[in-house]
TrEMBL record:
Entry-linked InterPro entries: EamA_dom (IPR000620), EmrE-like (IPR037185)
A single cellular component GO annotation: membrane
Keywords of the record: Membrane, Transmembrane, Transmembrane helix
Coiled-coil spans in chain: none
Transmembrane portions of the chain: 25-45, 57-79, 85-107, 119-140, 146-164, 176-196, 208-230, 237-258, 264-282
Entry-linked Pfam families: EamA (PF00892)
Name this polypeptide is given: Permease of the drug/metabolite transporter (DMT) superfamily
Annotated ranges, domain EamA: 4-130, 146-279
Organism of this sequence: Halobacterium jilantaiense
SUPFAM superfamilies for the chain: Multidrug resistance efflux transporter EmrE
Organism lineage string: Archaea, Methanobacteriati, Methanobacteriota, Stenosarchaea group, Halobacteria
Length: 285
């Protein structure tokens, strides 16, 4: 549980680091994942014998996971440019609801009444939170509707990443798994940047510090530690613990950036958190 607490604190810094960087959102995503891949590479090399045991089907699943993770980063990083940090980080945490629906549709897992109720509550909270941007409010962002939609897309992509890679993680240890997924994710983001003609170099020194910070903090000590914790802590506990991210991000945004969430963001975010908590805790009931 101590490791999980560290991970939640680490991922809470992600939105702040992304927001204070002036680089294009795609560039932030590219270098975060490139540095994440480089950081886990030495650990993956120590277990390189595991790569030989990966089947063709698992390679396909890992590749899909990496592409979906790239979609998650690209959509969520872009969302922060258009909506508030509180709204973005709360909406992107609707991932457990998408996972529950995806598991029902793709993996034939039964959805209980509690899970269904939690999903409905979470969606209602999302509508309420988005209404704040449409009606106006403190530090809502230049285009809250677009930003909120991108955050939800980021949540759906993250859910797909979890669903595609869940079975592979059971057969492959942490370092080799995240190295391949991060590597595919990085290659996908670089390809998109090249296709769009987005320059990947020529940024100020402080931007490179921020890119590395995104990789070390929310990357290595955040999501990688979360993947490690899944081996020792029930998935429902991990999911509920991650609900601390939007709370932590909103607090940091208030303290560091003076970004005061409006009433719709506060109430809608609270409703979303209740819905996700019900969804996550109801999956084994």
């Amino acid at each position: 549980m101590a490791g999980l607490a560290v991970a939640v604190v680490a991922v809470s810094t992600s939105a702040i680091l992304v927001d204070v960087s002036d680089a294009p959102s795609l560039v932030k995503a590219v270098w975060r994942v490139v540095f994440m891949t480089a950081l886990v590479a030495p650990f993956a090399v120590r277990e390189r014998d595991q790569f030989e045991s990966i089947s063709g089907t698992d390679w396909v699943l890992v590749t899909v996971s990496g592409v979906l993770l790239a979609g998650h980063f690209a959509a969520w990083f872009a969302s922060i440019d258009y909506t508030s940090i509180a709204a973005s980080t709360t909406l992107v945490q609707t991932q457990p609801a998408f996972v529950a629906v995806g598991a029902w549709l793709l993996l034939d897992e039964r959805v209980t009444a509690r899970v269904a109720g939690g999903i409905v509550v979470a969606i209602a909270g999302s509508v309420l939170l988005s209404a704040g941007g449409l009606l106006g409010g403190a530090t809502a962002g230049p285009n809250p509707s677009l930003g909120n939609a991108l955050a939800v897309l980021g949540a759906a992509s993250a859910a797909g990443y979890v669903l595609a890679g869940r079975s592979v993680r059971q057969r492959l240890s942490l370092a080799p798994y995240v190295f391949v997924v991060y590597g595919v994710c990085a290659a996908t983001l670089v390809a998109v940047a090249v296709w769009q003609g987005t320059p990947l170099a020529g940024y100020a020194a402080h931007e490179w510090v921020l890119f590395l910070g995104m990789a070390v903090g929310p990357g290595l000590f955040g999501h990688t530690v979360i993947n490690w914790a899944l081996k020792y802590v029930e998935s429902s506990v991990v999911s509920v613990s991650l609900l601390g991210e939007p709370v932590g991000s909103a607090v940091l945004a208030l303290v560091l950036l003076a970004e005061v969430p409006g009433p719709f963001t506060v109430v809608g975010g609270a409703v979303i958190l209740v819905g996700i908590a019900v969804t996550a805790t109801g999956r084994n009931t």
